[in-house]
Specification:
seven-stranded mixed beta sheet; lipid metabolism; sterol metabolism; alpha+beta; Cholesterol oxidase; eight-stranded antiparallel barrel
Amino acid sequence: MEHVDTVVVGSGFGGSVAAYRMAEAGRSVVLLERGRPYPPGTFPRSPAEIGRAFWDPEAGLYGMFDVWSFKGFDSVVSSGLGGGSLIYANVLLRKDERWFVTDLPGGGHEVWPVSRDDLDPHYDAVEKMIGTDVYPLDRPPYDHTPKAHAMQDAAAELGLHYSLPPLGISFAPSRGAEPGVGLPLAEPSYGNVHGVQRRTCRLCGECDIGCNDGAKNSLDHTYLSAAAFHGADLRTEHEVKGFRPRPGGGYEVDYVHHDVNVRKDRRPVRTIACERLILAAGTYGTTFLLLKSRAALPKLSRALGTRFSGNGDLLTFLLKAKDRDRVRPLDASRGPVITSAIRLPDSLDGTPGAGPGAYIQDGGYPAFVDWMVPGLEPDEQVVRVVKFLWQRFVEFFKDAPDTNVSQELSDLIGDGALSVSSLPLLGMGRDTADGRLELKGGRLNASWSTESSQAHYARLRKTMRGMADVLGAEYADNPMWFRKRVITVHPLGGAPMGRHEGEGVCDAFGEVFGYPGLFIADGAAMPGPVGPNPSLTIAAMADRLSCRALESTASRGLGMCPPPREGTGAQETGDTRDTGAGPASGEAGPPGGAGNDTAYGADSGRPERDRGTSPGAAARTSLSFTEVMKGFVTFGEGDPRAGELAEARERITFRLTITADDVDRFLDAPEHTARADGWVESAGCGGRRSVLRGWFNCFAPAGADDRRLMKYRLYFTDGEGRPRTLTGQKNVLHGPPTRIWPDTSTLYVRILEGHVPEGEDAEAVAAGVMHIRLPDFARQLTTFRTSGEDGAAALVRFGRFFAGELWEVYGPDAA
């Protein structure tokens, strides 16, 4: 049986932080994430893609949105590498200092076992690692964001506190730089698991359906990339089914490995053992696993399943805003989903009679939805989209006939909910945590309603109506509200922390009472609502948990919890890593860069001297650049020249970041091997497919002094999960200098069956020719990056090497 120090279940705000801190401290870490990775550019957008973007493995769906429907409320959570950070609206607010209490159903309140003072150092660490910034409303073009100004005006008129909250978004290409729309982002020191160029926010309102630009500093770009850099094995498409204590200490974890491209009714259950198990599968996932495993954990507290709440979430709409007799644009799709926050004071702040505190934030929706507003001709495309939406909602509510609100939603849209003068409002706050999660028929069931939090919801709705009046808008409840149903994206509780097992499932550090080494690191551990958006607080709790877990093993000689590392911010550029350029040309290497069915994580096959933890890593200097090539291939053709010209040809594109982690080693090695990360896009291969592992050889010897080869070998899987290898070759041949551009910009490619090592051959699935266009080449020249102490000199050395090789081939004719 496989055995590691730490297993982390889930990759959201709790799991990613814990995985990073454990890996950074030198522990062997395996992170199990049920969903798939989503590099920039792969989030679903078309109706067909969105129709399969839901999570239901029994129906063959492995998408990002996991929708739960209970009596009284519905909930949307995320499945994918990065967890909830993939679809959250980027707000990273600290829990208010005086709000560390839980209101009791019968009146009064109970102080949390953790305070703001306890969390502040961990808030600092998380903010630095993720990289936060406020919306630059005072600078063009960001100053033209009508919804932010409308929120500001409403708050001023109503005498409420307005702020631009910290957002986990990159508006500038690097720290301290001027913000700009769509600019390339500087690579962080720990690299990126996706290997795809990220760009700054382009104000498209797509944050909560996945950022295809990579502007969102989601956990896959930050904590998880850093965890992988330090050796964590990130196993995507791995769903945990249960766990139990292990004889002699530690835990055994059962999981299945989903093949998201092949529907299977039954998958083999595998088991991994660990000394420490960190549950971070989200409020529903973690509580469900604990309830399922209760027979194996007889000492679990009776508090399991209690203190559930929706963090006071409420969605409403402002419609048809006017300024005197003119339409007042609110333009909800302009900017990120949330730009602004209005804070409603709490009685605990010293405001008599205020009640529990709350926040109201502007909501947004993707800019591409604008064309669906009323007034457009009902052409075939609009009819298809409306039909699609209707079917999705019917499917969503099919098991709860009393909640089918398709007609109400249709009426709302028909009244202009998506028009330029309308704006969704998002409310949240300190509701009453009196819900309960339990198993019924083997499924998770929730008992909770808005009844005990009526004062909270009434206050939110009253304030939102006041905002509507100020902005000359009509106010509209969510159509579900008349049935007293809400939608929450912030479920909390179920395995709450407490001072003892009679009060909670785990202690103030997340360790489960009675089970050493078993931790809860997500929203399930919250003993009540956070109030503001809970993501930052969950991450800070996980950081604090990690310190305690590491300190508890120090007495066994495993080392103390290290302080947060310097220079690991989301946009830091000083790179001291050496992750290796991959195997030499004659070595196959595991296709995904790691063993155990994963495309991310540590390469267990590399010697210790080649890893970023080696003592000499800091002395090495890396160099990288990004290349885009486009062309044509024909499937069923084996000759590249014929494949480029055949009538059945189709387009193919790749975007690769070529990285030499050690420039000196790269230049000295005869094959000049570098790592290639990125994606290949072809309809015949299933669209855009991530490169699982790739190599690039720059001016490899070809047996003659006047001939060089520039070679590419990329492992990926097609849309049906079949392994494929793209091999490409640029022939740099003896001839006049006028041949330099055609030779270095023309790539003859073949797509092979399987993951085929250098020196072996296989049947060609397709063949063709790709080129780099002059505009793409000009952009490529701007992507060269170096990091390390000798960056500038490394760039000069590379330039001399490149020019020197060209001279060896073309120089004699130029003389």
